[in-house]
Design a protein that fits this description.
Elements: H1 2-10, H2 22-38, H3 45-56, H4 61-73, H5 80-103
Helix pairs in contact: 1-3, 1-5, 2-3, 2-4, 2-5
């Protein structure tokens, strides 16, 4: 389920030189925080696949570093089920936000 969601997210890639709509960038940032929070309990391949997508969707390396610091300072107790559900929800929302952008291309 999550693997197919990540594959769907990869279809939303936007070339870096294009302006990424702010709602898509904000959702990509949220998805990044979910993945950083969940890294202790889910397969690291999800992060490896997500990172280039996040960068293409306007998430900056500075944002990622800041999110890592916040999560490290105040970790949220997570389970694999909670993480996979949160990740699926975040990716669904990202896909939903990206649909109008794709239609306009």
């Amino acid at each position: 389920m999550i693997r197919s969601a990540l594959m769907a997210a990869s279809l939303t890639r936007t070339p870096v030189q294009q302006e990424v709509p702010r709602p898509i960038q904000k959702q990509a940032e949220l998805t990044t925080v979910v993945l950083i929070s969940c890294r202790p309990v889910i397969d690291p391949v999800y992060w490896d696949r997500w990172l280039p997508i996040a960068l293409n969707l306007g998430v900056t390396e500075e944002y990622i570093a800041a999110a890592r610091e916040v999560v490290a300072r105040d970790p949220y107790p997570v389970t694999e089920t909670l993480c996979l559900n949160a990740l699926a929800s975040a990716l669904d929302k990202l896909e939903e936000l990206s649909a109008p952008a794709k239609a306009g291309q």
